[in-house]
Amino acid sequence: MERILVSACLMGRKVRYDGAAKTSGDALLATWRQEGRLVPFCPEVEGGLPVPRPAAEIEGGAGGSAVLAGAARVLTADGTDVTQAFLTGARSALAVARSLGVRMAILKEGSPSCGSLTIYDGTFRGRRLPGIGVTTALLELHGVAVFTEDHIPDAGVRLRELEEA
């Protein structure tokens, strides 16, 4: 049975920066949960950040790949550098994925860790731009397909492809 890494906040865990969850009501996700496929994970918490914690963004909206390459940092609004925690969390996510043979993930869109389509631009003004988070960048670099909570049907198609191969 294929396992799926999933953002813990989407599973109702209060791990987001603001101490909240972003629980998904998606029926397919609920089915996968009942089947025991889901592996809830929060890279920011696993990286050592507290709940709640200051919001963080990737400087200049550079994206997770730039952070992995050492060309950008993850900062809080007051300028505190939390890059190491984001890198540690991303590496932990990859380690869990590898240990369980995970080949796909459903991660929270917009997050500096988990975003796979957009991230915030680094100005803390609520502006988004195309880009991916640190964890998404590392997972994708190692062949894990990442989907947002708004693209769970696409994840379902990918799951069928993996299981039929």
Describe this structure in words.
There is one protein chain. The chain has 165 residues and is an alpha/beta fold. It has one domain (4-164). Helices cover 34% and strands 17% of the residues. It has helices at 27-34, 43-46, 64-68, 83-100, 134-141, 152-164; strands at 4-7, 38-41, 56-58, 74-76, 104-107, 118-120, 128-130, 145-148. 44% of the residues are buried.
What distance separates the N and C termini? 12 Å
**Which structural class is indicated by helix and strand composition?**
alpha/beta
Q: Characterize the biggest β-sheet.
A: 4 strands, parallel
Beta content comes to 15-25%
Helical fraction equals: 25-40%
H-E string: EHEHEHEHEEEHEH
Number of helices: 6
- Subunit arrangement of the protein: single chain
> What is the alpha-carbon Rg in Å?
15 Å
Number of domains: 1
The outline comes out as: globular
**Low-pLDDT segments, ≥5 res:** none
Q: Give the integer mean of the pLDDT values.
A: 97
* Strand order in the largest sheet: 2-1-5-8
What's the β-strand tally?
Answer: 8
List the helices and strands and how they pair.
Blueprint: E1 4-7, H1 27-34, E2 38-41, H2 43-46, E3 56-58, H3 64-68, E4 74-76, H4 83-100, E5 104-107, E6 118-120, E7 128-130, H5 134-141, E8 145-148, H6 152-164
Parallel strand pairs: 1-2, 1-5, 5-8
Antiparallel strand pairs: 3-4, 6-7
Helix pairs in contact: 4-5
Summarize the structure.
This protein has 165 residues and is α/β, with parallel strands linked by helices. The chain has 6 helices and 8 strands. The protein has helices at 27-34, 43-46, 64-68, 83-100, 134-141, 152-164; strands at 4-7, 38-41, 56-58, 74-76, 104-107, 118-120, 128-130, 145-148.
